[in-house]
Amino acid sequence: MVFKINISDKGKTIKIETESEALIRNKIGDVIKGESFSPDLEGYELEITGTSDASGFPGIKGQQGNQLRRVLLTKKDKAMKTKRPKGLRLRKSVRGEEISEKTSQINMAVKKQGNKKFEEMLPKKEGEEVKSEVPKEEAKPAEKPAEQAPQDQEPKTSEQTIKQEVAPDQEPKATEQEKAELSNPDEEPKK
Q1: What pTM, to 2 d.p., does this model score?
Q2: CA 102, CA 157: separation in Å to the nearest integer?
Q3: pLDDT tens, 42-58?
Q4: Closest CA to 97 of 32, 6, 28, 26
């Protein structure tokens, strides 16, 4: 099972995907070492703050095990939206606090930084220039758009189009049959 891990520190977040089974059996609120699932996080201590499964059901601290269950929640519970009337209780589906194979996403907060600074692991923004060994391509001159005929001109006939496609100093050559048809339009063409 692939775990999608979101690690946050002071409002900034990095995302990591791992298949490490070292996370299984840990609970929400546990503090774990970062090197147990990623070598980049050597020396880090991370607290598990929340989980969710592939269907989006959240893990709730205080619910034992890793099973999916329907519980009666009040306004103070974490899985409830905050804008609810006072005294309202709803039955919702939630997972237990334990991480299992069914867990898809794990949220963590940094408790102690390690060897590598957290800012170095953040993804680069589009505005920041990334140093590369490949030289930039030279700017090509912009091509001029094709000239359009003014709208007040009459549309061209097929003969004018043919003459335009051929070079201006050369006339298109007609076959003998076409010449005969043009000179005597009343006669039927020979087969």
Answers
A1: 0.62
A2: 72
A3: 999 999 999 999 999 99
A4: 28
